[in-house]
Every structure is written in C-alpha cells, then in structure tokens.
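Hey forum,

I'm writing up a methods section and want to include a predicted complex as supplementary material. The small molecule is zinc ion. I've pasted the protein sequence and the SMILES. Can someone with a working setup run it? I'll credit the forum in the acknowledgements.
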Amino acid sequence: MSAVATRYEVVVGLEVHAQVLTQSKMFCSCSTDYLTAPPNSNTCPVCLGLPGSLPVINRRAVEGTIRTALALNCEIPEFSKFDRKNYFYPDLPKGYQISQYDLPFSRNGHLEFDVKGEGRRCGITRVHLEEDTGKLLHAGAIEEAQSSLVDFNRAGVPLMEIVSEPDLRSADEARQYVVELRAILQYLGINNGDMESGQLRCDANVSLRPVGRAEFGTKVEIKNMNSFRAIHRAIEYEITRQTEVLDSGGRLVQETRGWNDARGLTVSQRTKEFAEDYRYFPEPDLPPLEVSRAWVDEIRAGLPELPAARRLRFTTSYGLTAYDASLLTSSKPMAGFFEETVRMGAPAKAAANWILGDFSRLLNADRKEIEQSSIKPKHLQELIELIDSGVISGKMAKETFVVMYRERDPGPALTALRGSSQISGDAELEAIAAQVIAENAQSVADFKAGKERALKFLIGQGMKISKGRANPQRLEASLREKIT
Amino acid sequence: MPEPESELSSREVEHVARLARLGITPEEVVRYRDQLRHILTAIDALKRADTSRVPATAHPLEERNVMREDKPEPSLPAEDVLKNAPSREGPYFKVKAIQE
Amino acid sequence: MSLFQKTIRELHQMLVDNEISSVELTESVLDQIAAVGEKTKAYLVVTRELALRQAKAADERLRAKRDVKPLTGIPIALKDVLCVRDVVSTAGSKILKGFSPPYSATVVERLEAEGAVFLGKTNCDEFAMGSSNENSGYRPVHNPWALDRVPGGSSGGSAAAVASGEAIGALGSDTGGSIRQPAALTGIVGFKPTYGRVSRYGLIAFASSLDQIGPMTRDVADSAVLLQAIAGHDPRDSTSSPRPVPDYLSTLRDGVKGMRLGVPKEYFVAGMEPAVEQAVRDAIRLLEQQGASIEEVSLPHSDVALPAYYIIAPAEASSNLARYDGVRYGYQAEGAKNLIEEYMLTRQQGFGPEVKRRIVLGTYALSSGYYDAYYLQAQKVRTLIIDDFRRAFEKVDALLGATSPTVAFPLGAKTQDPVAMYLNDIITIPANLGNVCGISVPCGLADGLPIGLQVIAPGFREEIALQVAYAFEAATDLRKLQSPLMRAAAA
Ligand SMILES: [Mg+2]
Ligand SMILES: [Zn+2]
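Reply by user p_vandermeer:
Happy to help. Structure tokens for the complex are below, copy them as they are.
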C-alpha cells in the first residue's frame, strides 16, 4: 500500500441506501415486512404497479429523511418534489422508480468520524428519498440462471439514498464513514443498521489519480458489499487492482463491479458504453412539498443525542479515552449497555474494558450484537463488583465470563462464584452496615437529602468491607433501615 | 450533445425504441422516423413562444404536502396478486433470464 | 318512447314512482345493445349478468325506499380505461387482453354506492390515444348518426352508447378532448371537469397531469347528476382536490342573464367547417338573447397549445406505459430467448401503431439532450396557457367556442396522417393544459351530423359551465334530437 500512497491518491465516494423504518410502505399502506412475510403477500395495486393505481406519500418516511439529513448537517431546501427515474427491470413494477432528482429533501451536509483516533470529515452531497425495488431470486448465479422469481414485498419500501462527496482517501476512511453513519441512523431510530439483510446497503465509487493532479481518474462502482469488513476488503482489492492496471500502462474502464466475498475479489458486471438515460421528469401523480421552517424546527427539536455528542460526554463525564468512547458509541445498543452498567454501580473504566475486550471478542466471533446476548448490564456490574471487592481474581472472572456468556441465564454462574461465602446473617450484615455508615458520613447525608446514587456507593463500600460476600439486597435493606 | 433542430435519424428512432424496450421492424423505423419528423416540424411552433421569464408548470394544482399517516392496512389476497400473472411459480412471478 | 330513450332524470322519477323497475329498464337497454351493438361496436364487454344483479338490488332499495339516490337503478356504461373489480379492463389495448383488475376505480365505487347499474366496458382508442376511435386495439366504433363515420375519440364507445340508446349515461375520460369531441360528434353532452375535481384512482393512465374522468349524457341536467355522484376528494389520489363540491342542480336553472361570456377569437381556427362556425355563432347569439353580454377575448397562446400537448402527453405516457412488460399481468410474447427480448416483443406485439408512435415521441422528448428544448419548453408554454385563461376569466364568466372544428368524418379519412388527426383536438386541448373545465352541448346539425358548442369555465367552477350549457339547451329544442339508430330502433 505504501507504493500506492506515494504514486496515486485514492478517491472514494459512497452511496448508502438505508431503509427508513416505517410501518407501511412509501406510497401505499402495505406492511414493510419483507423479511419474514410469505412472498408477494404484502402487495397491493400500488406497489405492484397495476394499471390505474396511484401513490400517496408516507409522512413518516419524509420526516425520517429530513431527520437524517439534519443529523448529517444538511441544508433543507424549502421546496422539494419527487421525480420519476425511468428504467426497465423485472423487480421494478412500474417501469420507473419514484425518486428525487434535482430538488431532493436535503443537500450540502457533512459527517465527522474518527480513523484510529484521528478526526476526519466527509461531505454529504445529498440525502433523498425513494422507493425500494422488489427482490429477484435465482437458482444459482445470476449469469447462469434460466429464470428468476420475483417477490414484490420489498417493492415500495421507503429508502433513503445518502450520497457522499468523493472525500474519502482510503479503505479505512470508507469503513469508518459507514460505521459512523450506521451509528447515527441507529441513534435516530431510523434504521437498525443490518447490512446482511440489506436494510443498509453500500456502493462505492473508487478511482485513483496521480498524486498532485486535480481531475479525477476513471471511476469504478463497486456493489454488493454486505458488511464493514466487505467494504474494507473490496476497496482495498480495487485499489490494488487499479494500481496494477495503471502501473502496467493499461486503461481503466468506467464500469460496475460486484464484490464476491467468498473469492475476495470484484467482478465486472456491466460496462457502461453509453450512459444510462433515466429520463427523469417530475412525478405528475404527486404534488410537490413545501418544507416550512416550522416543520424543520419541529423535526430538529425531536433529534436525540447523536454519537458525536455521546462520545464527547463519555470522555468528559466518565473519563474514558477518546478511542474507547468512540468504539463504545459506534453502536447505540453497546453505548446503552455501558451506561446502564455504570448506572448500576460499576466503575466506568472497568465496564468499558470488559465491553470492548472480552465481551466484544465473544460477540464478534459469533457475529452477534450486544443486545442479542444473554448477559445483561446487571450481570456485568455484579461480576466487576466481585473482582473489585477481592472475592475473585481477574483470571477467575474471565473464565467465569465465558461460562456466563454461553449460558441462557448467566445468573447461576455468578451466584456460584459468590458461592457459600455470602454473608446473609443479620448480625454480621448489621455490623458491616454500621461500619459503612460510620466511615461515610457525607454519603449518608447525601442519601438523606434524596440522592439515590449515594446509597449505591454505600452498598459498594459494604461489599468491599465484606470482600463481596455480603448479600447486596439484604445489605441494602439494612442500610436503608439504619439511615432512615 | 445532439442539436434539437437537427432532423430525427433512423438511428435515433432505434435508440429511443430500445430505451422504451419497444421492438420495431426496419420498416417501422423508417415509417416512425418520417411520421415523427412531420410531427416534430409541427411541434417546432413550440419554440416560437417566448418563455425566457416563464416558470415551468409541472403540476397544475395548488395543493402541497399531500401525505398520509404511516398506518399499515391489509394487502391484496394472495390469489388476487397472482391471478393475472402470465408466468408464475408458486407464490412468485416468474421471469426469463436477464441477459443483456 | 322506449325506456332506453329517456334521460337519467326522467327514469329516476319513474323508478321512484314505481312506474317501472330497474330490471325492466336494464333489460330495455340490454335489448337495444343486442339490436344495434354490432352496428356501433360501442362495447368491448357487456356485463349482462352483473347489470341484472345490480338492477335487482336497486329495485330492492327502491321498493324499500331506503337509500335511494339519483342514480339508483340507472344503467351506465363505463369507458374501458376504468378498472372494475373482476371485469376485464383493457383500456382498449391488446396488451391488457383479459386483464381482470383486483380492485375498482374510485368513480366505479361511488357509482356502485349510488346503486347504479353497470352495462359494460365501452370501446375506446387504445390507452385513450386518439380522436376517432380507430386506434382501438380491437375494432373501431361507428357513429350512430352515420355508420360509415367515426364517433370521435377517445371516448367514442361511451359517446356512441349514449347516442344510440345503448346506455342512459356513461363515463369517459378526457386528456385532450376525449370526452367533449366525441360528445360533439355524436350529439350528446360531454363534460370534462377541472383536473382534480374527480379522482383518477383506478383510471388507467394516459397522461397523468391531464387525464380527467367526466360524464357523457343525453342532456345537461343528467351531466350535473352524474358529475355530482363522482366528484370530490379521494385520499387515494394525491392530485384530487379537497375543495368542497357544490350542489350542481341547485344553480343549474339560474340562466345567463347578466353573465359575461367571452368568445376567444383564436378558437375560430383555419379549417373550421363553415356549417360548424355558423352553428356556433348562432348559439352565441341565442345566449346573447337570453341576457348574456358577449365580448371577444383573446387567448394568445392557443396556437402553441397543440404542440405543447403533443410533448407533455406522450412524455408522461411513455413513462405510464412502461409497466406493460408482460411480467405481472397482460400480454406476454412467446418465443423470446431472454427477458430483454421478451420485453421488446411483448411491447411490439401488444401495442398498436399510435401508442408506439407516442411512446417513441415521448421517450425522445424526455431523453438527454432534448429535455429542455421539448419537455421543459412545453411546461413553460403550459404556464402561458394557464395565464391566458386567468386573464380571460378576469373579464368574463365563461368562454364559448366550437368543440370540434368539423363534424364526424368518414372512417379511414385521416388514419394515414397523424398530424391531421391531431388537429381535431385543437380547441379542446387548451382546457386540459390550462386546468379549466369544459362542456360540449349539441348546437345543431350539418347534413344530419351533430355539432357541439363548447362552454369553458374557470377551474373548479363546473356550476358555471353547467348553467350556461343548460340555458342554451333550454332555449332550443335540440335536446329532442336523437340519432337515427336510436329513433329507428324505438320505432
Ligand atoms: Mg437510488
Ligand atoms: Zn402496496
């Protein structure tokens, strides 16, 4: 790669298609469930393109798109409309896709993200709204299939197209851009970020140009990348391939190439000898939209905390490193898991280490998301507490964690760790509680003043004194009784 | 870029027919070319109108922001979906291999 | 007089008074269809069983005097561009041969709710593209006034059915004159409401920004009744207007006294037949005698309306007709090697010559390099035409002119010359582009062939068009005119 870096500059722009999570389709009232519903069961005259049917815009899809655009720092023009993009394909029932051409809902935004702890910024050309196509199923490879089967359940599902500027300069940057974008969509509750099922799809335009030259080289569009890893590998592969072509004096052709994950290479799909002519024109079946400033303000007011803000908060309020904060916040469920664990009393640093270390390793190996695990914040907090209070060693904890991870219910493994050494006797517990109260006057006062968190601290102190052997529920009861 | 004034050629008719996925015979190419030239000559009157300061009307209506709430409703019964399909296989529409 | 010769209003009274039953009435019309149907070829499908079933249901409503509406029990014909659930709906095209929609158009549902009786689907130019009905994918319609002549188009089947006694009233669709011109050529009343007044949901699209459904009837009062039943907002059509629908019958007889009526000088076009011009000028004079003040007005961009239309309509059509690919419904060609070839063959064999011509023209007008010169320019011209009407309606309440520059012409006379055929619509097209409403009412005969007077009113002022047309109709005895085919069969 070093040779590339000196001779050629890598230019990557990404087009991400993300489903807008709605109950009903973009232009009809059919359910958007295309993953589990029987084939063609969620279809109607509108999404089958039957003669005479007409589209009606789903308000939630429009608002979701504007929400996303605002989160990506876009301008929202006051006037917008839908257009028809005309082309023939068997998964496109009307012979045109309702999309947006010259007046999309948004333009001129940007996305900031980290690459190995360093800040980067990529321009967002536009975020527009369109309808998804149906799905084609072939027996075997598309090139060899004698026929295909068509399922229109996905036809008409609302889809955002998020187009970046060609600002990305490496496969790492491209991957991190998508990681950050996915996190934002998750935080917004607009898309669950599932790349494998196709709810989030990414195409990359990759070209090389000699270092120092202003104009772009011939670009190649790469499709069919179904994971972060695939995005990274495909772009790396394409950089190497294009470098070799250029170095050997060859010429690149503008074309579409599909990423073959199993073989680890891109394959030419079709050459664009003449550019497609989509004959865009304003959709006559849909009146245009006036996006009032009041409407935009209302949508803006409903924006949740976004990954960048949360990242900053994680460094300031929990004292995490920028790197840890960045990793934790890249997934909304993971960030939530972390905060919940800390809220239950675990020290932030320890919680972060566990989540980003042992826990992530296990999840990655299983290709699972944190919310799918049977380990809940409570389990992790208790495990950390056992270590901190010296009941078990770090080594024991790591071994136990694997056991807990494999169990449907991790509770018993934890209880077993705590074992028979747990102190449940009233007299002994009361002695511990009395010692805690005596040694922590300030926290006792805080708790009396209504600060629930102070009690957590006192319980923690009690666990420490007892080396984790106190039954926390009973200790809590005892403390409450003595203080109030 | 082609000049709009230039006369429509047989190649353009063929190109446009292919864009529209419309098979046409060589005789039809010639016939359509001649008829369309005739029509386009009549249509050239369009260029006489001074529209330098005129906005385009894509939409004759005053209505804006016509939207519906995001509420799912029942779809068509399965048999209705496929009852007109020229080729089907089980619950699917069936199409020939896509080759360009 | 046979039942099938009467009007909706007369028959409604007889039904309410229990003088006749809807089954009797429906049988009378079905008998007339059986008698003259092969002469006019007005229908593509006659839904005899459905009609009799609906007539029986209507009779029950009438007997119980429950939920009786102006159209309860009245036999109506539907242009084949309207989808009717489980009734073959083809838009007059072979590419939709046998297509049985799983849903009904909103106007169809509204008529059903009124208790109307559906006689069948009327013949039309394929996808409503034509002015003579000779572009039907099945067979041309013949004019009941002279069987060797065209009935006009594209709603020629609906027009012929109403004019021959094969329906009491009918629905047509009008994209550039397709209701008004055939109404004029067959001596009936045809009304194109303002775009947005009637829901297009379930209307097989030709040109989405121009198409509008409207009534075709024996007289103006019937037109008001039928429009009343179908007008109004529909949440399934985003382009349908939420404006309230006035009571059209309540102002129908208010007369034209004190009204200002404009005569656009551009509407007396070159090539207009002298007899047509004479009849229209006489009609204008008659309205003046009724108390209207007449003044000449100008719609300066009328000459570019036709060219603008022949860009906008084919452009939208080229896109609307892309869905006919033989995958989900309709005709599918045999013997293709792959899908692309199958698309090409299906569309080559399924569409007729005029449709293909317009698909090529529309695709060309939208293709890169030509979009600005043709499509965008046509849309700007459309703005000019809208402004023309707006300025004219600042001065006058309605506009008067001929509907068609000629009377019905012989079958085959213009089929070889598309441009000559397109000129038929030269004075009806501006109303579609300008988004106003227009009604055609009979105003005389030339050599036994009907002539139509067109009354154009501002957008969403259908009551004005009806009022003027009614005042004219009431001042003449033209309402009693019947086509020879209707007269002969009744004798
Ligand atoms: Mg797209
Ligand atoms: Zn649907």
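Some notes you might quote in the supplement: The first helix of chain A runs from residue 2 to 7. Chain A has a mean pLDDT of 91.
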